[in-house]
């Protein structure tokens, strides 16, 4: 049954996407490391780092689409799960600095020495081990999502109310992480990383490795999402999205399905954050900013919610636009982003992929209808 | 030669001291001493040691002469000098390397001399206290009630037992009840510090405890450890004062909470209207507040340029303008974007967020990202005290204004045809439409009204907040919390929600800190929504999905 579940997710189209992502995971690092810089096929380190970041965003968008596009839960706080995963990874990276910090304390990270900590806070223990940090990357956001969802879905908080309280959640976390007493670096967050698994985070090889890991995680997540939405449970999720009360009246425990997909989505967002942090080299509380979470929503909307490839395309496109605009016309970027929100919701409610699918479907329909029309034509063909 | 002079001076001082003591008690109207006597006493200030100077200060004080206060003031500020050769004491004011000299007795300027020829008469903290007490006792009998009150307060701070006779004299003369009380408290503080009888001290403790403020607390705590009755009484009094202060603190928190609540009410009430009537989350609501604040800024700028005399009326001029500007933008948003998105609340949320980004960036491009200077009219500056609470006029006016806006909106919704139609659309859109109400028109007007109210909230907020393009963003989440907590479609809910959240925030602050307090409030609301998903004052309806 499990194999059926897994294989079911990998139909022809999903298979192409997964294969493409795996190919990117292999090809781009090779083009960066092996192909000499003089070659036109060489991928510069800057581009690699940039697209590594975009792929993290794409993973976040994918996780958001899973709850919004397939279950109708518009989360305005997914940035919180992303940031929590990032902090878990950041804590591991901080512990790896060891005595190489500015103050040279073998155990305490620099900011703790600076803030006169005598010993490591309890929740920092274990983060010197990668496996532990890796588990925490999914467990912490997953746990928060589970508790939050448990309360919210059971009491049937839906629609804009749910969106607003997810926003309140990330806002509360933003405020909390700004506090120095939190023991997580306060305003400055965690930065100045040196090693990941013994490799220097700055080196080209590590960066390529992280890129490959991100692309592979995205491929795997895509596969998982595809399996979920194609399974029987996925059908129920879509039913919940389209008519929640009716689904409940038929006899499905709506809140269980919601809670499952919500928690899964938060874990994926956590992984995205964990991959993001070593690539950008810093995690600070501004990642919890509600504006970031809403920006992630527009990636999904642009690409097309309710399609799994849409959010990936949307995240890469919008962020590519952001990089270009903020470099070339920084004044215009917010206008462009704002206009994007308005125009997409007004004119492109299904996003790019959804619109293309719709057009393709209607084209196919017309083509299918065309021969019939010809056959019905009383005039004999020449 | 100088030795005999010192001795003579010391003798005169002691004598004057004793005489003045009686004089102060017997003849409250202070006698004017002759110039020569005074001069001798002033010169004695330049004595060798601090304790001699102290005697000199006391002697001077007990002359009760009007001129003494100025001399002692100069001494306290380090402006009293003694000639290195002449041994004459003078008041000096530094002017480059020279001193502009004034005669302490005649108050006439006596020319400019190089600083090197003079030595500053040094004072230490003990002497400063004595000086303060001396000036205090001197001015206790002044004709000006403000001066008398200040003097009594100053004497209270010194707690010098030797001021008791002067205080007694002043108390006998005093007619103003308020000042009399301060004087008695000052006397009580001095009695406590003296070697008076235990019963007197206990009475004094009662008098001081009557003040019930932080100063009385700091005095009383010093006597907790005193032996016998005094210590017991002091302990009881300290507990008493602590209770009083705790009560005032609670009162202060309530006031701060009401003040914050009224700000939240102003920011949220427009949102409550649009959300209630249209089920639309307007993420650009905060930007309407910001635009209102910028309208105020522009109005003030124009007034400064063309009619500076009207500055005190700038807010009254800005109010209707802010309402119109924000309201017009609101109507434009509704007609241009939102009406195409009815029935899709989540998309509306995203589109209005986009609009908020555009508005923010537009203001940033036009006015710059920095904070703009919005001035307070004179009637909004300053503060006054109620007991231990200090109330600023700007906060007070905002509370008044918020209440006014609330009831004005209430009247608009309950007493006008427009309000009737709005409520009808809130209750049941289809039915209202079937009864001939133009629901699209109501939608546009309601959105305009909500935005306009946000605009006038911006005028009020410009008085207490930094006016910057980000002004609205800081309020948007709080406003949502108020609306969601209070419940939709009921302005009373918004009022109760705003005040509850405001007061809860301010009560949590002292215990948890501002940030943690706010987090608690957010978490509380998140949990509260689970219990009552439609807020405190939910509209009763039959629809299964709002």
TrEMBL record, chain A:
Cited InterPro entries: ABC_transp_permease, ABC_transptr_urea_perm_UrtC, LivM-like
Transmembrane as UniProt keyword: yes
UniProt topology in membrane: Multi-pass membrane protein
Entry's localization field: Cell membrane
Keywords: Cell membrane, Membrane, Transmembrane, Transmembrane helix
Domain of life: Bacteria
Membrane-crossing segments per the record: 14-35, 41-60, 67-89, 129-153, 160-178, 209-229, 259-277, 297-320, 332-349
Database matches in NCBIfam families: urea_trans_UrtC
UniProt name for this protein: Urea ABC transporter permease subunit UrtC
Phylogenetic lineage: Bacteria, Pseudomonadati, Pseudomonadota, Alphaproteobacteria, Hyphomicrobiales
From TrEMBL, chain B:
Keyword annotations: Amino-acid transport, Cell membrane, Membrane, Transmembrane, Transmembrane helix, Transport
Transmembrane segments: 254-281, 313-333, 396-413, 480-504, 510-529
Protein localization: Cell membrane
GO MF annotation terms: transmembrane transporter activity
UniProt keyword annotation of Ribosomal protein present: no
UniProt keyword ATP-binding, yes or no: no
GO BP terms, alphabetized: amino acid transport
Pfam families in UniProt: BPD_transp_2
GO cellular component: plasma membrane
Entry membrane topology: Multi-pass membrane protein
NCBIfam families the record matches: urea_trans_UrtB
Family (UniProt): Belongs to the binding-protein-dependent transport system permease family. LivHM subfamily.
Protein name: Urea ABC transporter permease subunit UrtB
Organism of this sequence: Methylobrevis albus
Gene name for this UniProt entry: urtB
């Amino acid at each position: 049954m499990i194999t059926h579940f897994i294989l079911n997710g990998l139909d022809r189209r999903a298979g192409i996407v997964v294969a493409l992502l795996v190919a990117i995971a292999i090809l781009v690092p090779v083009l960066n490391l092996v192909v000499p810089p003089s070659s036109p096929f060489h991928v510069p380190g800057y581009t690699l780092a940039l697209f590594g970041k975009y792929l993290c965003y794409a993973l976040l968008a994918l996780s958001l689409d899973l709850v919004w596009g397939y279950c109708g839960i518009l989360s305005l706080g997914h940035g919180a799960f992303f940031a929590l995963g990032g902090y878990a990874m950041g804590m591991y990276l901080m512990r790896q600095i060891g005595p190489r910090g500015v103050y040279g304390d073998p155990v305490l990270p620099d900011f703790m020495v600076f803030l006169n900590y005598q010993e490591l806070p309890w929740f920092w223990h274990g983060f010197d081990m990668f496996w532990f940090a890796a588990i925490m990357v999914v467990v912490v956001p997953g746990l928060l999502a589970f508790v939050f969802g448990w309360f919210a879905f059971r009491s049937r908080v839906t629609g804009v109310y749910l969106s607003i309280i997810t926003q309140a959640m990330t806002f509360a976390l933003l405020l909390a992480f700004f506090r120095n007493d939190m023991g997580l670096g306060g305003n400055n967050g965690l930065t100045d990383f040196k090693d990941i698994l013994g490799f220097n985070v700055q080196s080209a090889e590590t960066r390529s490795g992280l890129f490959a890991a991100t692309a592979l995680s995205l491929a795997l997540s895509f596969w998982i999402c595809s399996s979920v939405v194609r399974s029987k449970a996925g059908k129920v999720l879509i039913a919940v999205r389209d008519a929640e009360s009716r689904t409940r009246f038929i006899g499905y425990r709506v809140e269980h399905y919601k809670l499952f997909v919500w928690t899964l989505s938060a874990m994926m967002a956590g992984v995205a954050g964990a991959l993001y942090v070593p690539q950008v080299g810093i995690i600070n509380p501004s990642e919890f900013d509600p504006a970031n979470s809403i920006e992630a929503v527009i990636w999904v909307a642009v690409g097309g919610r309710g399609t799994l490839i849409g959010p990936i395309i949307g995240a890469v496109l919008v962020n590519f636009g952001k990089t270009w605009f903020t470099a070339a016309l920084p004044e215009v970027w917010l206008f462009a982003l704002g206009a994007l929100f308005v125009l997409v919701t007004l004119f492109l409610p299904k996003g790019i992929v959804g619109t293309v699918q719709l057009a393709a479907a209607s084209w196919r329909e017309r083509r299918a209808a065309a021969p019939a029309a010809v056959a019905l034509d009383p005039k004999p063909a020449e | 030669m100088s030795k005999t002079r010192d001795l003579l001076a010391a003798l005169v001082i002691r004598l004057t001291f004793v005489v003045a003591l009686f004089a102060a008690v017997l003849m409250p109207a202070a006698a004017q001493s002759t110039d020569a006597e005074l001069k001798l006493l002033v010169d004695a200030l330049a004595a060798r040691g601090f304790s001699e100077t102290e005697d000199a200060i006391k002697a001077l004080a007990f002359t009760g002469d009007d001129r003494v206060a100025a001399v002692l003031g100069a001494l306290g500020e380090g402006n009293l000098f003694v000639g290195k050769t002449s041994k004459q004491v003078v008041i000096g004011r530094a002017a480059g390397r020279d001193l502009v000299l004034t005669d302490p007795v005649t108050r006439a300027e006596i020319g400019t001399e190089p600083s090197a020829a003079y030595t500053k008469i040094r004072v230490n903290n003990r002497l400063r206290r004595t000086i303060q007490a001396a000036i205090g006792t001197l001015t206790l009998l002044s004709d000006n009630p403000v001066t008398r009150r200040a003097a009594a307060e100053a004497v209270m701070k010194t707690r010098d037992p030797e001021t008791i006779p002067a205080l007694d004299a002043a108390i006998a003369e005093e007619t103003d009840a308020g000042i009399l009380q301060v004087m008695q408290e000052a006397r009580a503080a001095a009695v406590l510090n003296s070697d008076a009888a235990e019963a007197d001290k206990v009475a004094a403790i009662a008098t001081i405890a009557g003040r019930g403020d932080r100063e009385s607390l700091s005095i009383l705590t010093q006597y907790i450890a005193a032996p016998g009755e005094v210590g017991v009484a002091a302990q009881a009094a300290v507990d008493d004062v602590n209770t009083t202060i705790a009560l005032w603190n609670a009162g202060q928190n309530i006031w701060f909470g009401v003040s914050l609540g009224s700000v939240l009410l102003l920011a949220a009430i427009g949102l409550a209207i649009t959300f209630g009537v249209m089920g639309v989350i307007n993420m650009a609501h905060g930007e309407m507040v910001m635009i209102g604040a910028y309208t105020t800024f522009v109005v003030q700028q124009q007034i400064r340029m063309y009619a500076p005399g009207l500055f005190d009326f700038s807010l009254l001029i800005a109010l209707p303008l802010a309402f119109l500007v924000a309201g017009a933008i609101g109507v434009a948003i509704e007609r241009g974007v939102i009406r195409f998105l009815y029935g899709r609340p989540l998309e509306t949320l995203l589109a209005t967020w986009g609009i908020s980004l555009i508005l923010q960036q537009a203001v940033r491009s036009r006015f710059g990202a920095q904070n703009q200077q919005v001035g307070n009219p004179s009637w909004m500056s300053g503060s006054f005290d109620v007991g231990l609470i200090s109330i600023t006029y700007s906060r007070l006016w905002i509370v008044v204004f918020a209440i006014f806006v609330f009831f004005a909106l209430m009247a608009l919704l309950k007493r006008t045809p427009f309000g009737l139609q709005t409520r009808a659309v809130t209750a049941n859109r289809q039915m209202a439409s079937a009864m001939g109400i133009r629901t699209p028109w109501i939608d546009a007007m309601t959105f305009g009204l909500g935005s306009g109210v946000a605009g006038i909230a911006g005028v009020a907020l410009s008085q207490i907040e930094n006016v910057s393009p980000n002004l609205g963003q800081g309020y948007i989440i709080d406003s949502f919390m108020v609306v969601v907590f209070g419940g939709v479609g009921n302005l009373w809910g918004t009022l109760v929600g705003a005040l509850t959240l405001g007061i809860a925030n301010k009560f949590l602050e002292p215990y948890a800190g501002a940030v943690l307090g706010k987090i608690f409030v957010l978490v509380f609301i998140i949990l509260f929504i689970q219990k009552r998903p439609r807020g405190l004052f939910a509209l009763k309806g039959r629809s299964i999905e709002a």
